[in-house]
Amino acid sequence: MQTGIRDCNRRNISLPAIAHCHRFHQGLCGFAVEDCLVLIVLALPFVTCVGCITAEEALLAQGEDLLSRQEYEAASLLFTRYIQLCPDAPRGYFARGIANRELGILQDAEEDFAKAILLNPNNTNFRWARFEILQRRYKTLQSSATTTFDRPVWETLMSALSTLMMQDLERILRLDPGDVSARLEYASLLSLRGSLEEAMTELDRSVLEAPFDVGVRNERGRLLHEMGRYTDAIKDYDVALRYCDTCTLVKYNRALSLKKCGRIEEAVAAFQEVVAEDSLDGGAWLNLGELLHMIGRRDDACVSLHTSMTLGNPEARDLYEELCR
């Protein structure tokens, strides 16, 4: 597993550093102890004696090595020791945040990434790391709706998370305006906030920068659908499917827009293709059942609705009871 946080160059080793090599074992950037000894014994002509890395750097390198071997608890302990020695070095917090994230300790991971950002606000890797944690929390909270919190509390928490996410994305885009992924996420958040025109402006820019990006086209199509521009949405989905003809999500969204346009036969065919590729998609079976009923194919509609019902879709149960009993 690549953590993406190694930025240390290999260093060559001088004779006085042998004890240091043994003391820190494999804490050298790219060299194990044996490598140190081999280099010295062979006295390779290209070896430059620059000395070993510091104890702090050795701790960081050892921790990163443990991360690469998915030994997250041990890595986290080493990063904590590194942070104690170098409290103003952002890499330690970032690395420990990754370990905590992999251990599922998301609150601690978020705090570590926030500290790394505080120490270096312009590092996009730090920003992305925190954004991903915030996004997980946002989606979890979004799915819980009001089951856990009173509505005002829920809305306050959602707004606070959304604001932090947007701040990270805005800084990323300021540093790298061509980051299509960041712009796509930013447009999605604007859409969730109800700022549809602003979201469309961001997506239009993304289309100019990446006209054949499937994610951009799908998100733009989804937003056009939300704005009631179903024919334009279908055009974007068509472009996306030209470059990804196996993208079931895009096919599903396209089928919804066809349904809204009143192109019923095409929508039936589109949803049939979706369920052929993903037979567990209860929403697709529900829509297919509704459409089949609209064109008078009652028996087929009932089969589709029953399938959706068995997949746990409560809407399908109500419709099935109404149309098929």
Describe the protein.
The structure is a single chain. By secondary structure, the protein is mainly α. Among the domains are: 1-120, Serine Threonine Protein Phosphatase 5, Tetratricopeptide repeat (Alpha Horseshoe), CATH 1.25.40; 263-325, Serine Threonine Protein Phosphatase 5, Tetratricopeptide repeat. The chain has 17 helices and no strands. The longest helix has 25 residues, at 151-175.
Write down the overall geometry.
elongated
On the 0 to 100 scale, the average pLDDT is 84
Can you identify the CATH class of the domain at 1-120?
A: Mainly Alpha
Order of helices and strands: HHHHHHHHHHHHHHHHH
The main β sheet shows up as:
none
What attributes does this structure have?
single chain; 325 residues; mainly alpha; Serine Threonine Protein Phosphatase 5, Tetratricopeptide repeat
Task: Please give the structural blueprint.
Blueprint: H1 18-24, H2 33-42, H3 55-68, H4 72-85, H5 90-102, H6 106-119, H7 124-144, H8 151-175, H9 180-192, H10 196-209, H11 214-226, H12 230-243, H13 248-261, H14 264-277, H15 282-294, H16 298-310, H17 314-324
Question: Would you summarize the structure shown here?
Answer:
The chain is an all-alpha fold.
